Amino acid sequence: MTDTEGGETGEVAGQYGKKVGDRLRAIRRQKGMSLQEAEEISTQEFKASVLGAYERGERAISVPRLQRLARFYNVPVDQLLPRDEGPSFAGDGDEAVVDLTRPVAQPPRKVTIDLTRLDELNGTAAEMLTRYLAMIQVQRQDFNGRMLTIRRDDLRAIACILDTNVDAATKRLEELGLRLTV
Questions:
Q1: What are the residue ranges spanned by the domains of the chain?
Q2: What's the mean pLDDT in 41-66?
Q3: What is 73-133 written as a DSSP string?
Q4: For residues 138, 141, 144 and 145, what is the CA-based torsion angle, rounded to 10 degrees?
Q5: Domain 110-180: top CATH class
Q6: Residue 91: pLDDT band with limits 50, 70, 90
Q7: Looking at domain 10-80, which CATH architecture does it have?
Q8: Which of 12, 46, 104, 124 suits a disulfide with 42, CB 3.0-4.6 Å?
Q9: For the chain, what percentages of helix, strand and coil (3-state, to nearest 5) are there?
């Protein structure tokens, strides 16, 4: 197997192309469009056969074309790409020094926020938290309006909003009456 430009083997590039295609298909379906409807709505800019080839991973999509497709679907470009699950580059600064002698309290994997209680709170932190959680709802297309389950990664941003560290953010949410136990 020969390397392609950038050093990836054809098999690895093909697997990534398939993942990109799966993501493109998922976004199109979330928009409620068939391949033919996408072609019609785009006034033939995105032919159904070409979109299908992108989605099956049979054809690579160029960066400018990906950007046009993102505009067409009205999503950020990065939403058309699969999550990066690959290894980090050596020496890219991601290494962390961990003190293994000190126990580390892990925040819970998920925290459920009472959105109705959040509506009752006032202040800058409440406004920022409301905007941040609304952004999460839009990204997930989750508009039940009563509760929202946030992930550990989201807790980092919430800790910043609440002017605390990640370990104390869950406790602070409880103090505010925002954390639901489900």
A1: 10-80, 110-180
A2: 94
A3: HTS-GGGGS----SPPPTTSS------TTS--PPPPSEEEEEHHHHHH--SHHHHHHHHHH
A4: 0
A5: mainly alpha
A6: very low
A7: Orthogonal Bundle (1.10)
A8: 46
A9: 50, 10, 40
